[in-house]
Amino acid sequence: MRIGIDIDGCINDQHDFILNYGSKYISDNKLPYYIKNNDTNDSQEIFGWPEETAHDFWDKYRQKLVQENIRPFCIEVINKLCEEGNEIYIITSRYNGDLWWDKDNRDNVEDITIKELKKLNINYTDIIFTQDKLEAIQKYKIDIMLEDEEQKINKISKYIPVFIMDNDYNKSIHAKNTLRCYGWYDFYNKFHNFK
User: Among candidates 44, 70, 72, which has minimal Cα distance to 58?
Assistant: First the structure.
């Protein structure tokens, strides 16, 4: 099967990262602390930050998200799926020129992402950088998608089955043609039952 896998929120735990590193950022910068909305994956909305503060946070910590916070068993499961003959397509909304990356790395987002995946020893067939995941899914004839973002899940699930990587911010999603996963081995087992 051709399996599409998102990075932020699926390979890594972006929500957990924002809560932990955001709390540190607040402490280091002596900002007022409160979590305004935990049902989102957006640092501005979680902490009620203005855009300038959120940009400063991501400028400071973006590389940590790329290098750390990989979900348990992610690499092991992806590599197992490859060994079993499945094709793995990493489909991400990251892109060169992304203003949420620091100025020094903004034009190298794709190269940085590829290098980090290589360091993690994740096997995959191809990586696709796109703002329109559905278009990529159709072009590459993806059979199923592992995704965490509500809008993308709702759009993609109209065409192929979507496995939802469980997060606090996506618990209200109950779209047809979806199956919720609570971790990588849960995804692995549900994928085999589905298949």
Answer: 44
